[in-house]
């Protein structure tokens, strides 16, 4: 009797697997909507648009990118949570959507850990530590030492595009790990935050290469470290924080595709495969490298593990820093 039951279960599982594979082969048979939960023109949208022509060709359907911003990305994310889990509504999520917002926003209507089915990462934007050229430091190690001197202790500021953003939290992480005292000055968006460094109103800003490249080339900013594991090809002379002795310090804003929880595993696998293919194209690799962008394509299982790991990290940072959404 037990053997017969086990055989029945095996047949059922095989049938389920076969149905999933058949569904994935038939999918998609209509356009797919991908929601960007932030304003148009952001790095996540720009990098994903580079992939769309290849993805459309491979999938045989149009991809409609819809911008739906608000509440730190929660408005767009909620729209995907409420969507039918059929693979026709996906979220182009950023770090905040999946591993930060649940700890800084009160009364969120969903838990990202259970509301989404992770697919894969699309792009990573390692952060660059920017300072005003007038600051007497050559690298991040010197900056931390300078900030701890009697003359500077508690007097240095850093800007961010807003409370709870990744530039804010990544510098908070640095402060907590090194004990350096820095004052956070939030601005309404990246341009104002960067202008504050250019004007000397604040001493530090942490952001992607695209945010400061022009001013770096003009000598109006100085890059003292990058937060990737390896040096950026576009900034080969700038050391990583890890090289400078900041153990395992990586700070980036990454973007990824996720689907509503309950989406068929075959559809998840199909998207992960096609995103990896698009990212492997030479022209995409070149454009990403020139922009200081690291291609994504992380295996789904690894991505799930990363989400759990980073959620734990940022929960601790947020609690220790007493950080709340504006």
Question: What can you tell me about this protein's structure?
Answer:
There is one protein chain. The chain contains 13 helices and 11 strands. The model is unreliable at 5-12 (pLDDT under 50). The protein has helices at residues 2-26, 43-59, 74-81, 95-99, 101-104, 112-115, 140-147, 166-178, 190-199, 209-217, 265-279, 282-290, 300-321, and strands at 32-36, 63-67, 89-94, 116-126, 128-131, 157-160, 183-186, 204-207, 222-226, 252-260, 294-295. A 6-stranded mixed beta sheet has the order 2-1-3-10-4-11, sandwiched between helices. Strands 7-6-8-5-9 form a 5-stranded mixed beta sheet. The protein is 46% helix and 18% strand. The chain starts with a helix and ends in a 5-residue tail after the last helix. The chain folds into 2 domains: 24-124 and 253-321, 3-Layer(aba) Sandwich (D-Maltodextrin-Binding Protein, domain 2), CATH 3.40.190.150; 128-226, Periplasmic binding protein-like II (D-Maltodextrin-Binding Protein, domain 2). The chain is an alpha/beta fold.
Secondary-structure map:
Blueprint: H1 2-26, E1 32-36, H2 43-59, E2 63-67, H3 74-81, E3 89-94, H4 95-99, H5 101-104, H6 112-115, E4 116-126, E5 128-131, H7 140-147, E6 157-160, H8 166-178, E7 183-186, H9 190-199, E8 204-207, H10 209-217, E9 222-226, E10 252-260, H11 265-279, H12 282-290, E11 294-295, H13 300-321
Parallel strand pairs: 1-2, 1-3, 6-7, 6-8
Antiparallel strand pairs: 3-10, 4-10, 4-11, 5-8, 5-9
Helix pairs in contact: 1-11, 2-11, 8-13
């Amino acid at each position: 009797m037990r053997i017969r039951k086990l055989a029945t279960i095996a047949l059922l599982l095989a049938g389920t697997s076969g149905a999933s594979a058949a569904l994935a082969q038939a999918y998609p048979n209509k356009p797919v909507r991908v929601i960007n939960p932030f304003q148009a023109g952001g790095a996540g949208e720009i990098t994903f648009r580079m992939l769309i022509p290849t993805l459309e060709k491979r999938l045989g359907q149009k991809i409609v990118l819809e911008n739906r911003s608000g509440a730190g990305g929660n408005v767009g994310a909620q729209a995907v949570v409420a969507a039918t889990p059929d693979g026709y509504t996906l979220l182009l999520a950023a770090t905040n959507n999946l591993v930060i917002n649940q700890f800084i926003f009160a009364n969120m209507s969903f838990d990202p850990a259970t509301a989404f089915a992770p697919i894969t990462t699309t792009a990573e934007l390692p952060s660059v530590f920017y300072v005003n050229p007038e600051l007497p430091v050559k690298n991040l190690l010197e900056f931390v030492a300078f900030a701890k001197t009697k003359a500077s202790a508690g007097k240095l500021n850093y800007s961010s595009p807003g409370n709870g953003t990744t530039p804010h939290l990544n510098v908070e992480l640095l402060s907590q790990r090194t004990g350096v005292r820095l004052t956070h000055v939030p601005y309404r968006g990246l341009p104002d935050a960067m202008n504050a460094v250019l004007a000397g109103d604040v001493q530090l800003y942490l952001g992607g290469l695209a945010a400061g490249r022009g001013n770096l080339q003009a000598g109006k900013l100085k890059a003292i470290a990058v937060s990737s594991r390896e040096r950026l090809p576009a900034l080969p002379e700038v050391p990583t924080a890890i090289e400078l002795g900041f153990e395992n310090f990586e700070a980036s804003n990454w973007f990824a595709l996720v689907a509503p929880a309950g989406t068929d595993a075959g559809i998840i696998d199909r998207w992960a495969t096609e995103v990896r293919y698009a990212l492997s194209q030479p022209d995409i690799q070149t454009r990403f490298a020139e922009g200081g962008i690291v291609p994504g394509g992380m295996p789904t299982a690894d991505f799930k593990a990363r989400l759990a790991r980073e959620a734990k990290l940022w929960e601790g940072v947020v609690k220790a820093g007493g950080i709340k959404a504006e």
